[in-house]
Every structure is written in C-alpha cells, then in structure tokens.
Here is the input.
Amino acid sequence: MTEAVHAVLSFHFSDTEATKINSSYFVGNHGSRRVLEKLGFADVGAKAQFSVARGTNVDTRVMKLSRAQWDQENA
Here is the structure.
C-alpha cells in the first residue's frame, strides 16, 4: 500500500501546483496510520467523520503533507 500511495503522491505533486495534501484515517486503523506516517504525513488534529460501512460517525485523525516536506523526503 505504501508504494501505491507513494506513486499517487508523486503524480500529485509533479502534476499540480498544490502546496499540500490532506488525508485521514479511522482511529484504531493502525495500518492506515502507519502508511501515512511512513510517507511523511503529520497529524494535525481529530474530527468525527461519517462511515457508510459502520452507519455512524467515527473518530478520525487528520493528517497533512506539505509539498516542502514531500520534496525534502524525496529529493
């Protein structure tokens, strides 16, 4: 999964003028958290997000990756 997300991020930052990208994961989903951390995302806070599969709001952590951080880690 890390390799797939890395490829998407490479495309995103090379093909757009975006200065950041946000993502999130459900609290307790350690695999998703670890993928985002390995790619350089930083935790910026919590929020509740509706999960269709669960039919209720779920606690999530919001993560952010800046272009500067991406460039630094992928130079």
The first strand starts at residue 20 and ends at 26.
